[in-house]
Amino acid sequence: MSDKEKVYRVAMLHAANLLMAQLVMSLKDSNISSATDECTVTIDGGHQHIVKGLVECDCTHFLTTGLPCAHIFVAQDHEGQVKFVSDLVPQRWQRTYSHCMNRIVLTRVMFQ
Ligand SMILES: [Zn+2]
Fold this sequence. Notes:
Elements: H1 3-10, H2 13-25, E1 30-34, E2 38-43, E3 48-52, E4 56-57, H3 60-65, H4 70-78, H5 95-110
Antiparallel strand pairs: 1-2, 2-3, 3-4
Helix pairs in contact: 1-2
This protein binds zinc ion (ZN).
Zinc ion (ZN) is lined by residues 49, 57, 59, 61-62, 69, 71-72.
């Protein structure tokens, strides 16, 4: 399964679109230097960001959405890991979770 298929299977549409944009960005020229548990990542001459433990970043994208960003993908790739793993998608952005929430809302509306 390609990363794209995985992304759309796991994440809700809005989140999947954001993830795809970050995956595309992670393919651009990047610079990475890694220390024990931290990587310093620069993509396409942009700001330098710190990725911690391959799962957290200090960039706006990660801080506002909680979704993995291009810096995390670059770091994962650098460490020889698969770029996208579903565990990185917070529960609120997962398709199964949104189906579940829709059902709860629907049930409430029907029985009110
Ligand atoms: Zn980032």
